[in-house]
Design brief:
6-stranded parallel beta sheet; Rossmann fold; globular; 14 helices; alpha/beta; 43% helix
Length: 419
């Protein structure tokens, strides 16, 4: 096994995010002799926050992705890009000559090429001639994928490398993008050997828009690790848990309106939200204005590895996720791994791990507060046997579809065999 993996991430193993890789990297390290992790959005001030196996070398790119940093990246690269006829034609065709899309595509290409220039300088410090194969693995179907394609076509062209990319949510669903457009989809799909959305919903979305690449696109699920923690509840009230970054797409304001309905009907509950984010203060203030202060708690940011510990020390009856857009939510996978039923909106790949009436309830994305409240009340009114059945089903679905050890072991072997 004399193989090498180039893994392109946004931040991992720095900062936070990309938590799935914390479990996956162990399996990758067992299937590749050497792994280089290129952290493309890491500035020189950031410190590594997560450990990696001994055969992994971490290469932070050292670019500030602030607004000023991004402007510098565009100014560094724009002239070079406009001099390349092939790139100009690709951008013109990709954007369908729409001015806003065209500007976005130039911005995207500028960022990717600025990262690439730094990456190739870092890789020059290493000798790759001893490896029998090189595999490029982009964690996102976005900037990292574009950098990966450039590595394949230029830097490693003499090694005949394979390139694959995962795809999640913001890098996948064009209809959820601010401009209803994501740059270079056709170019990336044409250039990459395999694309692996984390949900079947993601596969169908790509296949519908880009059917000529159907043979390249397959689902490869993400998963969580079981800590053998069983969620504990008691029937004095509903113990409602949500866990996410606090931002608009998570629609915590809708959950608050739902809880207002519970209070109107004098249904006892305690809601805990785990996580911080850009809208944290706004949502907390909204809860304080609309709800009884004894009925809710906000933990703020909690490290991923500490979330499961929270469940060990607190009661939980049901997990709620009302997102308007999703990939396959890690927080739901963690919840069902602890036998916790779920109420969720039918966003992205959520339906692949939440089955209506089996391990919880699946609601339309356009649901209202009364509909959500009715499902919470249904769970509150269940007898012990009915509730236990939901819990058992939750754990069974996690074992079948979200067990990280099985999923990542198989995926790492597949990558190794791809070459």
């Amino acid at each position: 096994m004399n193989n090498c993996l180039i893994l392109l991430t946004n931040y991992y193993p720095f900062y936070k995010g990309e938590e799935y890789l914390e479990s996956e990297i162990k399996h990758l390290s067992e299937n590749f002799e050497r792994i280089f992790i290129i952290s493309t959005m890491v500035s020189s001030e950031m410190k590594q926050t997560r450990e990696v196996p001994d055969n992994v070398t971490v290469l932070p790119v050292g670019i500030k992705h602030s607004k000023i940093g991004k402007v510098k990246m565009v100014s560094n690269q724009f002239k070079n890009i406009t001099k390349e006829k092939d790139k100009k034609l690709m951008i013109k065709e990709d954007s369908k000559n729409k001015i806003v899309n065209k500007l976005y595509c130039y911005y995207f290409e500028s960022r990717a090429m600025d990262v690439y220039d730094r990456v190739k300088d870092m890789l020059d410090e290493y000798d790759f001639s001893n490896y029998s194969s090189i595999t490029i693995y982009s964690y996102w179907l976005y900037i990292t994928a574009r950098v990966g394609v450039e590595l394949k076509n230029k830097y490693f062209k003499d090694y005949n490398p394979k390139i694959i990319s995962r795809a999640h949510r913001y890098d996948l669903y064009e209809d959820a993008a601010p401009l209803k457009y994501l740059p270079q989809r056709d170019f990336l799909l044409k250039s990459i050997d395999k694309v692996y959305p984390c949900s079947q919903d993601g596969v169908e979305s790509l296949n519908k828009t880009y059917p000529k690449y159907n043979d390249k696109v397959e689902v490869r699920r993400l998963g969580t690790i079981s800590k053998n923690i069983i969620a504990k509840s008691k029937d004095d009230k509903l113990y409602i848990v949500s866990c996410s970054v606090v931002r608009k797409v998570k629609r915590l304001d809708l959950l608050i309106d739902c809880l207002v309905e519970l209070e109107k009907q004098n249904i006892p509950y305690l809601w805990t939200h785990i996580g911080g984010g850009p809208e944290f203060e706004k949502i907390k203030k909204l809860a304080e204005e609309k709800l009884n202060k004894d009925n809710f708690k906000f933990t703020g940011f909690v490290k991923n590895q500490e979330v499961l510990e929270w469940y060990k020390d607190n009661y939980a009856t049901v997990f709620v996720n009302l997102s308007s857009s999703e990939g396959v939510p890690v927080a739901i996978m963690e919840a069902i791994s602890m036998r916790l039923p779920v109420i969720a909106t039918d966003a992205g790949g959520t339906r692949e791990i939440v089955e209506d009436g089996v391990n919880g309830y699946l609601l339309p994305i356009a649901c209202n507060a009364e509909e959500v409240a009715s499902k919470l009340i249904a769970i509150k009114n269940m007898n012990k046997e009915e509730y236990d059945n939901l819990c058992k089903n939750a754990l069974n679905i996690w074992k079948q579809r979200s067990n990280a050890n099985n999923l990542y072991s198989d995926f790492a072997k597949e990558l190794r065999e791809l070459c």
